Amino acid sequence: MQVRFLGPLGVVTGSCTWMRDTEHDWSFLVDCGIQQGEPTQDVWNKANWPFDPKEIKFVILTHAHADHSGLIPALYRNGFQGVVYCTSETQQLAIELLKDGTRHSTLTYGLTDIEKVVWRTTGPDQPFGSYFPVADDLFLQFFRTGHIVGAVSVVVSWGPKGSDQRSIHFSGDLGPGAEDSESLPLLRFRMDPSKTCNYAVVESTYGDVIRAAEKQDSQTRREELRLLLDQTIEQNGALVLPAFSIARTQDLMFDLHWVVADGSGKYDRLRFLLDSPLARKVHPVNRQALQKTERSSKGKVRARWLGKQFFRDLGLDDANPADIAAGQSILGMVFDDAQNDQLRGIATGNQIARDWRPIFRSAEEARQARHADLVGPTVIVTSSGTCDGGPVVQWLSALLSLKTTTVAMTGHCSQSTVAGQLLAIAHVPLNERVRDSGSIALPGKEPIPVFKVQASIYKVNGYSAHADQNDLLNWLLREREGVCNLAAREVFIQHGEDRHRKSLASALRERARLRQLDVLTHLPSDPELWWSLERSVGSNIIDLVAERSRIEQEILALQSRLRAMG
């Protein structure tokens, strides 16, 4: 078995890893995503791969985000005839994301190509960690990562089961926190490796970041929202909350419901609007996923995606049928299109659970409000999170010039994005902005001079769905009951800027050293290199010149034998 890391190397988006075993005629990909906000994205997204899509047998998709899934339809357009292995939730989310992506003229596929995708899921009753055969002596295992609904890490194992079987564990994107220390409001904790594989491939998006405790604390996050709602009421203005449609929007809506339920009627004057068509499309997927359970081989039944913190924070018992039903009613109020009095009346849990009520208005009201003057204090959750497209552009165009407007970003935004440009002036007071000669470039709109931006700009912390350095190290080096279990003794670090990769590699080696363990780290940098997964540790890079020479010698020897036989 060989592996070739096509991307992302030294950047964050565009995941695609090529694996092959010529002896068994195996050739497959782990993820096949677009680049977003990278200097090389125009070239990468043209889908000029070093392989022939016709020769790829299948794709393993770790999760739905476009930087992992976005080029799969292009594979089919170029002759791929295999299947995509993933969870059923990833399939449903990816279809909506891919359809939404066809609005971008730079992509090389259309709706007909999305319809060609052949999805293959492991089935709702198969617990995480189960072996899933995809060919003779080739197996997959999925493990929940706590990143978004449907997201998994994947172990690829090859060879007959037993001590000689080899394996590589792909992390996909890992979520923050751990069991009993979850930071996101809804998702169940990340599953760490249960066994040591020969190799691991780990992301390093935040490989040199160690988050402060307050940036991972739900109470701190909700307090920031509370202050923003107070300010909106006081100014009788608008609060614009740009958010990514998958996961971020759902987490934000849950927390807004929480703050209102905890406010004893204080926020009844506020009007809440969700102006995010994609988020509304994926709400049913999220709600259905958060209802699912799985049954382990030991007979234990647990929620498949919904976290224990959801029940704990609301004073509900996740083993009590009445409390489980109450929890699902609460989720219904979060994700319903319109306020529905029939969903009220929670009679169990803590006071916040009992005071929970639906707060968001209908989709139609949100669309109409976009084209009219706002009346009264209004909270708008809208896409996209980077403010580079979608309904948020129209809201910003109309509201940035008003002193009664507050814009609060809910996640990381690169400097080149509209959200990044706004955050760059967040600390500049209004009396200084009048001196500024810069402008904010809104897509499809006239640039807004900075001196006309009267809105207050903030950033709300605590909604990142990515692991920080400590989380990544805990995934790679798992300690339980005094025993340290390595994800693998040889680790490839990708999916991050080089400074993040180097920092994570250094921290991993140091933590392993302190535990008297040996771990070898690689930072692949050349997308043309093949790495052997059969050789001894430390000698993985395949010398293509030497390999070609060896194959040519074998061919000559075989030709000689054929002549002798003739």
Describe the structure.
With 566 residues, this protein is an alpha/beta fold. The protein has 2 domains: 2-210 and 465-554, Ribonuclease Z/Hydroxyacylglutathione hydrolase-like (Metallo-beta-lactamase, Chain A), CATH 3.60.15.10; 213-459, 3-Layer(aba) Sandwich (Rossmann fold). It contains 18 helices and 25 strands. Helix 8 runs antiparallel to helix 10. The model has no long low-confidence stretch (mean pLDDT 92).
Secondary-structure topology with pairs:
Blueprint (H helix, E strand, L loop, with lengths): L1 E6 L8 E6 L4 E7 L8 H4 L13 E3 L5 H4 L2 H6 L5 E4 L1 H14 L9 H5 L3 E3 L10 E4 L2 E7 L7 E7 L7 E5 L28 E5 L14 H18 L2 E5 L5 H14 L9 E5 L1 H13 L3 E3 L5 E3 L4 H6 L7 H15 L15 H4 L8 H8 L7 E5 L8 H9 L5 E5 L8 H7 L5 H4 L5 E2 L7 E2 L6 E4 L9 H8 E4 L2 E4 L3 E5 L3 H17 L5 E3 L8 E2 L11 H22 L1
Parallel strand pairs: 3-4, 4-5, 5-6, 10-11, 11-23, 12-16, 12-17, 13-16, 17-20, 23-24
Antiparallel strand pairs: 1-2, 1-25, 2-3, 7-8, 8-9, 9-10, 14-15, 18-19, 21-22
Helix pairs in contact: 4-8, 6-7, 8-10, 16-17
Would you summarize the structure shown here?
A seven-stranded mixed β-sheet has the order 6-5-4-3-2-1-25. A seven-stranded mixed β-sheet has the order 7-8-9-10-11-23-24, with helices on one face. Strands 13-16-12-17-20 form a five-stranded parallel β-sheet, sandwiched between helices.
